[in-house]
Amino acid sequence: MATELSPISMGRSKRLDGIDLLRGFAIFFVLVEHVHIRLALAKVPYTQFLPAQLWHFLVGNGELGVQMFFAVSGFLITSISLRRWAPLSQINLRDFYTLRFARIAPLFLLLLAVLSGLHFAHVPNYVVTARTGGLGRALLAALTFRINVLEARTWYLPGNWDILWSLSVEEMFYLFFPLVCFLFAGNKLFGRGKLFIAILITFVVLGPFGRTVWTHGNLIWRDYSYLGGMEGIALGCLTALIVSRTHFSRTALWIMGSAGALIVTLSLIFSW
User: What average pLDDT does range 164-182 have in this prediction?
Assistant: First the structure.
């Protein structure tokens, strides 16, 4: 029987080399940029002998690395959901939230406990200052996935808190993802999930505005806005839906893979 969105045709244990490659690039660029920040704060002049474009390619693409993570996340969550509940209109809300909680909550709560302990111990660079609202406000923002909002309104939290901005964007998206799937992915009034796809496309279209004109000059919100990050997640979701419904020949896969690799390479090299 035909379904609105057929399950993606790959086994549960099969890994995708392309996904692992994107993850590797993303990890590299994020880690290298953070290392660069520490070296710059320590005034280590390691970049003075590097050409400007090479320097930027190596240490200035952390934000693009995060966007890669977002896209990979959207692709995997949608693919897994299709395998478990296809069509997506049949998604089990309780199971989705339970699985998400089990994956995120244990280590997330442990991290908050450790960071709180370091704050109370007055360890340098781990104390949440009054300028950003203190520890209580930071904990509330973290638990409600609003670290990015808090920082945009006050200032950067200590580095080990600051990294939680991306989790705030991701989990806010997944808070509503199963509800939107349940309501719109199989809505017959709009024909085989077209409204659901339209919602994802809307996020992709609005993403650039979320990083530019709608930041109103707030440099932190430019990098940490919900729309700016959800664009990548939605793009990953759309990719999973396309893959689940379309059979590509080996030639087509090589062409698309080469084109994608070229686009990613040019984006990383010339993003400055």
Answer: 96
